[in-house]
Write a structure and sequence with these properties.
The chain is of the alpha+beta class and 130 residues long. Helices cover 17% and strands 35% of the residues.
Length: 130
């Protein structure tokens, strides 16, 4: 599968997109890279558009300058998935015993619910104005 490159502040991130269907972003933890998902990508790509990537400074994702400590806000996994069924999605997650750490509504009415794990990684779900 060809690897694409995305230029971001201070780095070039290598990523791959496979399959079709709803988007599924696989986020490597710690110092791992996209290779950690090698065994699950093919079966998932039958039903989903699977996106994998190497975090900045790891494997094929290079830093633009010399290696240095990367600020937490640039290295922590912080992702938001915009979903069409925001209220239903948050209710389904709550039924599994998870509550958002934060809920926000922006000036334009867009809503966001953020979930965090003990390591500080976060994922948010966003939705259109109610």
């Amino acid at each position: 599968m060809p690897t694409e490159v995305l230029a971001v502040p201070g780095a070039h991130l290598h990523y791959q997109v496979r399959g079709s269907g709803p988007v599924l972003l696989l986020i490597p933890g710690g110092v791992m890279d996209a290779a950690m998902f090698a065994r699950v990508v093919v079966p998932l790509a039958d039903r989903y558009t699977v996106v994998t990537y190497d975090p900045r400074g790891i494997s094929s994702s290079t830093l633009d300058g010399p290696a240095a400590d990367v600020p937490v806000d640039l290295q922590a996994a912080m992702h938001t998935l915009f979903v069409g069924d925001f209220d239903a999605r948050i209710s389904q997650i709550a039924e599994r015993g998870l509550e958002p750490a934060e809920r926000e509504t922006y000036a334009n009415g867009v809503r966001k619910a953020t979930f965090r794990d003990p390591d500080g990684n976060e994922i948010g779900s966003g939705g259109a104005p109610a």
